[in-house]
């Protein structure tokens, strides 16, 4: 059954979800730029923090719209879940960037750059498809997006396993231990962001299943 046949469309929600997903992608692109062009770090991290605040405002707007709207395009709990998952995604990206600055990391590793690119790929897929959520005719396309985001998350898991396995190789002093601990945390924050993107994808999948 086509979702639009039995639920009135409310473009306000979809437009806000599109805006939220695009903001998540902009945040991921800013993170990838930080990793690939590691200069002016404080200002780049501040930009990412500003984008995180924009995401908070969008989530706030979604919550307000939910409390003042009688008819919603899909289940209210799912609206809140999707808004929360998108917010968590941006928060995790911002936290990874913030740690790079707080820890005064000398330069990103190739693995950190790869993880940032994975997050950017996930958020791009979500941002490009979020407008389709209102129309069940796009269900198969959205399921392909879920598969793509999940596959990229698997790539992130593999990178994390690889770096953790060799994180303390050759470490012989306290300074090296501290550096390894910090990188371990950073890799985990980056991989957490890939998990949060997958959470968004799974929430979309759940909405599709409920309205199939």
From TrEMBL:
Signal peptide: none annotated. It comes from the Bacteria. Belongs to the UPF0111 family. It holds the Pfam family PhoU_div. This is Phosphate transport regulator. It comes from Deinococcus roseus. InterPro entries: PhoU-like_sf, Put_Phosphate_transp_reg, UPF0111_domain.
